[in-house]
């Protein structure tokens, strides 16, 4: 049995790559908007921000290094302590052609594993995500083979970046244990359960406890709710001994029928929920100690 933690850190995922501007007018698109959303989330109580970037002209997901660099530099110019967690998820989607499934159709993003982490090697954020899922995703598939995951993990390790392992189903946890055994990943592991994607973990108290009990005892985890389960999972993750995450990547509503006006508003609600349940919100410095990250000097910019 694990009791709720005394100190819980909040991660805010400010834009993602699946939420669209048509779903909400409050979605940050440009590097300036994304960095401002991260800084606003930090002011509201987030210790960690999870960062994707988008093409400012189209609003569509991007992997352009220049956009990532712009976001990081803007954040660090105003906040030197906030923990940056940058995605490596894009680059694993495959769309089969209807008449020849071996041939990729429009929408396929599959690329060499090293290309998916180029920006990590250059920018060296404190954390980056690593997805272990190979699964149906809508009408398409996401492919993260064990070999490719190991190649990405090698780049992260050489860059000195802590992976946050994203787990979409129990088989992903089994793969994570194998990666820990062979040294591809190093413990104590930081991980998240992604709950609410149609063909993966479904959001419920039973699922959170089941997934948590498959982890190494020293693991730090967050249960993430997608869509309508976003705030349900804030409570469930905290009660199960985990941390919490919210943001416009995961959901667009603050309450039933009420669009979230900002990422900061979502963090504020998550903070109230945790505090009402008896928890305390960790500062970035405290979150670094929990995760096992180096303490940053007050004036450190890089």
What are its keywords?
17 strands, 20% strand
Biggest sheet overview: 8 strands, parallel
Mean pLDDT: 96
- Let me know the number of strands: 17
Helix segment tally: 10
Biggest sheet, strands in spatial order?
13-12-11-8-6-3-2-14
Give me the strand/helix succession: EEHEEEHEEHHEEEHEHEHEHEEEHEH
Share in β-strands:
15-25%
End-to-end distance: 40 Å
Structural class: alpha/beta
Radius of gyration from the alpha-carbon trace, in angstroms: 18 Å
Give the helix level as a range of percent: 25-40%
What overall geometry do the principal axes of the alpha carbons give? globular
List low-pLDDT spans.
Answer: none
Strand and helix map with partners:
Layout (H helix, E strand, L loop, with lengths): L6 E2 L1 E4 L17 H14 L3 E4 L1 E2 L6 E2 L2 H14 L4 E4 L6 E2 L18 H4 L1 H6 L3 E5 L3 E3 L2 E3 L3 H14 L2 E6 L2 H12 L8 E6 L9 H8 L7 E6 L4 H10 L4 E3 L6 E3 L2 E2 L3 H14 L3 E2 L2 H8 L11
Parallel strand pairs: 1-17, 2-3, 2-14, 3-6, 6-8, 8-11, 11-12, 12-13
Antiparallel strand pairs: 4-5, 7-10, 9-10, 15-16
Helix pairs in contact: 1-2, 1-9
């Amino acid at each position: 049995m694990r009791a709720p933690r005394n100190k819980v850190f909040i991660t805010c995922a400010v834009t993602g790559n699946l939420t669209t501007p048509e779903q909400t007018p409050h979605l940050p698109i440009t590097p300036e908007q994304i960095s401002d959303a991260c800084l606003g989330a930090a002011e509201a109580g987030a210790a960690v921000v999870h960062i994707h970037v988008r093409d400012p002209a189209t609003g569509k997901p991007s992997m352009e290094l220049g956009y990532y660099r712009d976001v990081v530099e803007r954040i660090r110019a105003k906040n030197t302590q906030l923990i940056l967690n940058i995605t490596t998820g894009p680059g694993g989607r495959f769309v089969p052609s209807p008449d020849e499934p071996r041939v990729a159709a429009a929408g396929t993003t599959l690329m060499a594993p090293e290309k998916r982490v180029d920006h990590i090697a250059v920018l060296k954020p404190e954390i980056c995500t690593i997805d272990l899922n190979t699964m149906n995703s809508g009408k398409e598939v996401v492919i993260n083979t064990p070999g490719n995951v190991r190649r990405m993990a090698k780049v992260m390790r050489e860059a000195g970046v802590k992976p946050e392992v994203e787990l979409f189903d129990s088989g992903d946890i089994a793969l994570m244990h194998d990666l820990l055994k062979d040294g591809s990943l190093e413990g104590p592991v930081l991980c998240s359960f992604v709950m609410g994607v149609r063909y993966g973990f479904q959001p419920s108290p039973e699922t959170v406890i089941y997934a948590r009990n498959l982890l190494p005892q020293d693991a730090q985890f967050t249960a993430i709710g997608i869509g309508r389960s976003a705030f349900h999972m804030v409570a469930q993750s905290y009660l199960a001994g985990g941390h919490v995450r919210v943001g416009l990547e995961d959901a667009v509503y603050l309450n039933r029928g009420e669009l979230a006006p900002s990422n900061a508003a979502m963090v504020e609600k998550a903070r109230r929920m945790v505090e009402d349940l008896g928890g305390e919100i960790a500062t970035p410095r405290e979150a670094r100690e929990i995760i096992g990250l180096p303490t940053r000097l007050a004036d450190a910019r890089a």
